[in-house]
Amino acid sequence: MSTVLPKKADWIQQKAMNFKPEENKVVIEDGTEIEYEYLVVAMGIQLNYNKIKGLEDALQTPGVGSNYHSAYVKNTWKSICDFKSGNALFTFPSTPIKCAGAPQKIMYLAEREFKK
């Protein structure tokens, strides 16, 4: 995976345990809080957004999107197009997902858009 990530991307191989949209933070399994300006979350096969505390509220926040639900995918692209600077956070689950390429594809599309 490290050979296909953008050079300035950090690949954090931990689970997202909590989302704090009011603080623009994600808490990963070791307790580390990661700040973001825009957040794109790639979910697993079953769309159980309610299984991740704070995610359903976060998905109503500008700058947060998901490729896997028609209600949120437009937010994903709008967030990418509106992104001007800061950190963009993309996630890739370690569990089986319905389209393994989607989290990577949106990251590559975002990189192209960011370079414009």
Brief descriptors of the model:
3-stranded antiparallel beta sheet; 23% helix; alpha/beta; Sulfide:quinone oxidoreductase_ mitochondrial; 116 residues; single chain; FAD/NAD-bd_sf
Task: Note down, in words, how this protein is organized.
It comes from Caligus rogercresseyi (Sea louse). InterPro entries: FAD/NAD-bd_sf, Sulphide_quinone_reductase. This protein is of the alpha/beta class. The chain has one domain (16-114). Helices cover 23% and strands 19% of the residues. The chain has three helices and six strands, in the order ββββαβαβα. It has helices at 55-58, 73-82, 102-114, and strands at 16-20, 25-28, 33-35, 38-41, 64-66, 88-90. It has a three-stranded antiparallel β-sheet with strand order 1-2-3, with no helix packed on it. A hairpin with a 4-residue loop joins strand 2 (25-28) and strand 3. The chain is globular and about 35 Å long. The two termini are 24 Å apart. The relative contact order is 0.19. The mean pLDDT is 86.
